[in-house]
Amino acid sequence: xxxxxxxxxxxxxxxxxxxxxxxxxxxxxxxxxxxxxxxxxxxxxxxxxxxxxxxxxxxxxxxxxxxxxxxxxxxxxxxxxxxxxxxxxxxxxxxxxxxxxxxxxxxxxxxxxxxxxxxx
Length: 120
Hints:
There is one protein chain. By secondary structure, the chain is mainly β. The chain is 0% helix and 60% strand. The N and C termini lie far apart (40 Å).
């Protein structure tokens, strides 16, 4: 069964950096877009960045210029490099991927989330 596992979250001071990783495992036939979303307490989940299988990227204005998304198709992984972190970046970050697994149906999968806390 397909599963997404995130890692790399933690506690950092404002201005610091973190690198989030997400690896998809299981019976995977193909992966299209992969992305990172975040949800702060009492807030709605929002897109942070996404990347297609061809490498095209989209960034939310909040992270543009500070965050960089990348992927390794051979490892079924996606990464989010976060620099110049701000307290308002504090949230649970979720990995998302469009995966055709077994049975061969396209479906949006989500990781369990990794906590990112930025202190002021």
